[in-house]
Amino acid sequence: xxxxKTYTILRGLAGAALLVALAAPGAAAVKKTAYPEVKVxxxxxxxxxxxxxxxxxxxxxxxxxxxxxxxxxxxxxxxTPADELDLGRDAIHNFKVAFGFRGLGKDADxxxxxxxYWDVLASxxxxxxxxxxxxxxxxxxxxxxxxxxxxxxxxxxxxxxETANESAEWYFTLAETAVTKAPGDTGAPxxxxxxxxxxxxxxxxxxxxxxxxPAPTHFEVLxxxxxxxxxxxxxxxxxSADHLCYARTPSGDWKIAAIDQASQ
Length: 264
Known about the structure:
By secondary structure, the chain is an alpha+beta fold.
């Protein structure tokens, strides 16, 4: 599925690499019925070189120390400034606005719901899969992305299983994947799937009332056959997600370069 991508360009002084954040998913109301198999094609994978790995290590250190000075940028969309960019302010200010450290037009930090988003920045560092954004020059983005092979089939599948008021969250597999009867089950799998997109039903371990939500280890998915099963979270990625992108400078260093924003 070729969707329009908006690359929010970030040019700054950061000597660190950001990797993609995978926010905890939410279970959607999905009809447990058979649907057409939704095949996907992975975007061109990128294997980090030594300079990229060095940048990644610097980013992790910056996040650990919560060092904003290592994470500055200039924010534009295409060749024009983003609406949220305040050209009269420095890059640190714009970074703080983008990641919830302060509100738009504010001089002081704070006052942003659920901000600052250090947890989001930290989660970007937990995924080490990347792709080459061939439609955006020399950008390398993460995590790995995929495109639906046939939009028509995807729409047929969605009509089969999604409700009128709520759409499903679709995740794609990174390689041939065994779908098990229960989280971590070592018995015969329910099925094996190739490079496909699957709707999410629930996740494990479940949330407990009054306790912080745990990081999921497994996702329950609906198979094209209508059967359900479980896959490790490491085996899949969200079909629609924001990606952080990087570019190599003339000096050979890698810098934070853009956000590939998920279509809404």
